[in-house]
Structure formats: structure tokens, C-alpha cells
Specification:
About 35% of the residues lie in helices and about 30% in strands. The chain contains 6 helices and 6 strands, in the order ααβαβαββββαα. The chain has a 6-stranded antiparallel sheet, sandwiched between helices. Strand 5 and strand 6 form a beta hairpin. Helix 3 crosses helix 5. The longest helix is centred in the first third of the chain and has 20 residues. The radius of gyration is 20 Å and the shape is globular. Keywords: Signal.
């Protein structure tokens, strides 16, 4: 009887674990991979070295912020009259993914160009990924994953200032640079 009860409990535990492990929403990384071949999306992976920050005079804090960067993943959906319905579905799916409790919100963005949110994954003292999601009804949406090692949230402003000091113009971004500008 005890052995039977133990087996039933083990089976029940296994079922619960399987059900909780199976999510209907993909992870953010899976979303990027799934959509990289879709013609509605523009996808670019950029190593942090493209910023050429080693040639810029930075403060020690800015150097620390820059050294924590590894790469950027950019995914953009450019909306047009032929894909408005798909745009709405994709935007809703990204929002559902980002509503996951694993993401911590840093700030909301609301400008004349569109709305967005900045979130992160990791410990508040050692961020591994910052996510920027911006969208506009007439332009589309852009999703940026900033990947790093133990990024400090307090250094995000320092990082932005360091990038502004550089001569980086974004020419290497190709199509996505045009999308983000226009």
C-alpha cells in the first residue's frame, strides 16, 4: 500500500512539473529565433565591439559599464497596410512574453514617436539582459535585447553617455538603422 501510494505521488509530482514547465508562450530568445526568417521582420545581431568604445575617452564608471556588454539582438517589425493584422498579433505576443514575472520593469516610455518599456532579467545588482520594446501604430515595433555580464542598472545612464561620446553613427545596422531612424 505504501509503495503504491509513493508511486502515485511520484507520478502526480511528475505530471505537475511537466505541466508547469510547458508554457504556451515562447521565451524571448525563442521568439527571436522563430521570426528571424519572417519577411516582416528585420533581425540584426551586433557584437558590443562594433561601438568601438576602446577609442573613446571614458570615465572609469563608463568603462565598467561598457565592459559588461556582450552583444545586442535587434528585431523589428515594420508595419504596412498588408500586415496590420499580423503586426497586432505579434505585438500582443511580445507583450505577453514581457509580462512574464521573470522580467522586472525599469521604466515605461511614452513619446511622440511611440510607446515602450524597458525591462531586465537577472538580479537587480547584476543584470544579464536588458530588454527595450518600443512600438508605434504607424511604424511597427522594435525589440532590443542588450546582453551582458553582471550589468549594473545604475550604469545604464553611464552606458548611454559613453555611446553618445563615441563616433558611432549606426551605419553598420543596415535596414534596421533606417527603420529606427525613419
Amino acid at each position: 500500500m505504501k509503495k503504491n501510494m509513493k508511486n502515485n505521488f511520484s507520478l502526480l509530482l511528475l505530471i505537475v512539473l511537466l505541466l508547469t514547465a510547458c508554457s504556451s508562450e515562447p521565451s524571448l530568445q525563442e521568439y527571436f529565433v522563430t521570426n528571424q526568417e519572417d519577411p516582416n521582420f528585420i533581425v540584426v545581431d551586433i557584437p558590443a565591439s562594433i561601438l568601438k568604445m576602446d577609442q573613446v575617452d571614458l570615465t572609469p564608471t563608463q568603462k565598467e559599464a561598457v565592459s559588461s556588454l556582450r552583444k545586442f539582438n535587434l528585431l523589428a517589425f515594420k508595419v504596412n497596410e498588408d500586415n496590420i493584422e499580423e503586426f497586432s498579433q505579434e505585438q500582443a505576443q511580445v507583450s505577453r512574453i514581457l509580462d512574464n514575472d521573470d522580467f522586472t520593469e525599469l521604466m515605461k516610455i511614452n513619446t511622440q514617436y511611440g510607446k515602450g518599456v524597458v525591462k531586465y532579467l537577472g538580479d537587480e545588482n547584476a543584470i544579464d539582459e536588458v530588454i527595450v520594446f518600443g512600438h508605434s501604430k504607424d511604424k511597427g515595433f522594435a525589440l532590443v535585447r542588450v546582453l551582458g555580464n553582471n550589468m549594473n542598472p545604475a550604469h545604464l545612464i553611464q552606458l548611454i553617455q559613453a555611446i553618445q561620446k563615441s563616433d558611432y553613427k549606426g551605419n553598420e545596422l543596415g535596414e534596421i538603422g533606417k527603420f529606427l531612424k525613419g
